[in-house]
Amino acid sequence: MTIAHASRTDWTDGPAPSTSGEWIARAGEVAAVLAVDAAERDRAAKTPYAEIGLLKDSGLVTLLGPAGHGGAGQDWPTAYRVVREVAAADGSIGQLLGYHYLWNWAARLVGTREQWERIEADAARHRWFFGGAVNPRDRDIVVRDEGDTLVFDGRKTFSTGSKVSDVTVLEGVLEGTDKHVFAVVPSGSEGLTFHDDWDNIGQRLTESGSVTVSGVRAPWSDALGYVDKEFRPRVYGTLNVPTIQLVFVSFYLGIARGALETGLAYTREHTRPWLHGGHERAVDEPYVIDLYGDLTAKLWAAEALADEVAREGLWFHLNPDEVTPRLRGEHEVRVAAVKAHATDVALEVTSRVFEATGARSTASRYGLDRFWRNVRTHTLHDPVAYKRREVGVYRLRDEIPEPTWYS
C-alpha cells in the first residue's frame, strides 16, 4: 500500500492503540507504507503533504497530547521509539515527526501552565502539525513590543516543517534586550513566507528552507513563559537541549536500521559471491557475515544506550519542579554521550553497508545512498566533538555543562 492508498479507514475502523507497544506497532505500520516508495519520493523531493497526512490519519501526531482532548497521552521514551520506527523507512519524515513532538512540547518546557494546557489541548483536538522557525545561533528576528502585541520581523535560515505545518513556533530577540521570545502562530499568518530553497544532499523532504517573517503579530499573552512581560525561567526549561538531542539520536539510529535492513534484504536477494571466494552464495561469504555481525552489534548497543538514557530522562518530564542544575547537567552529559555514539554508529552503518551489498547496489533505483546522505546531512547540526568534550570534562573534572542552546 502506497501513501496515496493509505486512507483514514485503515486506522479508524478499529480501536486506537492504547499502550506504548501498540503505538510503536502503529508507527511500524506507517513505516511500512512509507517504505514502499521512499527512494522515489527522495529523488522527487516534493513537499510531503501526503506524508504528513499519513502521520495525522494514523494518530501519531497526537502521541504526546492529553488523552482528555483526543491525544494518546504517551511519554517521551515512546515518542523516541516511534520516531526511530518511522525514520527507518524515511529519514525525512522521521525528522519531521520528531521536530513536531519537540515544538508541541515547547510550550510545556518554556510556557506557563495556562499556556501549555491551552496549546496542547488545541493541538490534540485539531491534530495540529508543528513546524519551527527557531535558530537561536543567529539574532536574525527582532521582536517589537507594541503594547499588548508583539511584532516579529526578520528571517530565519532554517524552518523545518514550514509549508506542511499548521502552526509554527517563532523565536526572536526582544528589541533592545537579550531576551529570547517564543510564540506559536498559525503557519498561514500574514507576513510569514516560507521559501523553497532547501536543496541539500540529504533529508530532502524536511522542508527546512528559510523563512521571511514580516510583521507577524502575536499577543503578549502568547509569549511563552512571560508574565506581565517578564520571563519566568525554570530549570526544567533547560531540558529543551537534551530532549532535542535525543530526538536527533532517534532518527539517526532509525535511519541506520533502515540502511542495515535494506542492505540485508539486498544481499539475500541480489549480492553475488566473490568469484575467488569459493562460496556459491553471498550469505555464506565470511567477510559478509562478519560485516553484518559487526554493524548489527554496534547498532543494537547504540539503541540499548539510547533507550536507557531516554528512560532516565523521563523522570525530568514527570517531575519538572524537582529538576536541579546538577541533575540536569548530569543528564545532559549522558545525552551527549549517546549523541556522539549514535552519530558514529549511524555514519558507519550507512557507509559500510555497501561493502556487503556490492557495486551493483549503488544503482540509483535502489536508493541505498539516501541513508548515508540523510545521516551525514543532519549530524552536522552541531559538532559532535563538543559532545565528546562535555563527557570528557565531566569525567575528568566533574564539571557539568552550562545550559546553552546547544548543551
What would your notes on this structure say?
The protein has 407 residues and is of the alpha+beta class. It has three domains: 127 residues, Acyl-CoA dehydrogenase/oxidase, N-terminal domain (Butyryl-Coa Dehydrogenase, subunit A, domain 1); 100 residues, Butyryl-CoA Dehydrogenase, subunit A, domain 2 (Beta Barrel), CATH 2.40.110; 163 residues, Butyryl-CoA Dehydrogenase, subunit A, domain 3 (Up-down Bundle). Helices cover 51% and strands 12% of the residues. The protein has twelve helices and nine strands. Strands 1, 2, 3, 4, 5, 6 and 7 form a seven-stranded mixed beta sheet that branches. Strand 2 and strand 3 form a beta hairpin. Helix 8 packs antiparallel against helix 9 and helix 8 packs parallel to helix 10. The model has no long low-confidence stretch (mean pLDDT 95).
